[in-house]
Amino acid sequence: xxxxxxxxxxxxxxxxxxxxxxxxxxxxxxxxxxxxxxxxxxxxxxxxxxxxxxxxxxxxxxxxxxxxxxxxxxxxxxxxxxxxxxxxxxxxxxxxxxxxxxxxxxxxxxxxxxxxxxxxxxxxxxxxxxxxxxxxxxxxxxxxxxxxxxxxxxxxxxxxxxxxxxxxxxxxxxxxxxxxxxxxxxxxxxxxxxxxxxxxxxxxxxxxxxxxxxxxxxxxxxxxxxxxxxxxxxxxxxxxxxxxxxxxxxxxxxx
Length: 255
Known about the structure:
Elements: H1 7-17, H2 25-37, H3 42-56, H4 62-78, E1 87-90, H5 91-98, H6 103-123, E2 130-132, H7 136-143, H8 149-161, E3 169-170, E4 180-184, E5 193-197, H9 229-254
Antiparallel strand pairs: 1-5, 2-4, 3-4
Helix pairs in contact: 1-2, 2-3, 2-4, 3-4, 6-7
């Protein structure tokens, strides 16, 4: 997972369990923010991170690691420690997402909006515009949508043509950041809250499954289910009537 929603818990777990051979950028950033949150200044943060690093890899190399640690410390000044928060989705936003009428794509849009609103809530943004710059492969993973590269590109193109997102562009806010940035065009804060996502590690489980026939939410359904119980029963009755009618027609022709 390339997104850490609760860096406090993540950092404490990292300090307790350490790392194997190589420390990742998200580890350095979480540690830098964690120490700053606990009152350390920049020199103290670096000393603490280097000391931690040497516990699990005695072959610390300042030439290789020093700049990465310094960058993490610098970023920790700009963005505070991230905590898990509840994320709301409004009724109008759900209606906008459902207009796509493709369950796979709807899940992707839902995840994108949750991630974007999470960042706004964490960093206190007052803008009514929503952006996302996570790797699309990470978004698909959180949405539990598994496709090849060709289909991945098609989905982005489709959502752009459908007016849900802007065309991808390189992140204009950072020359070092090569991730794509897109604006979400289906957000609407001026509506009643419909869904509260309180487990960011399983975002897609909060997106309801809707009946293809009547459009109502399917309660306690498995993800392969296409119809609610009532519509499924009606469909079975219609199929049974069709089979009976076909059988009677065949018997009548034979007589």
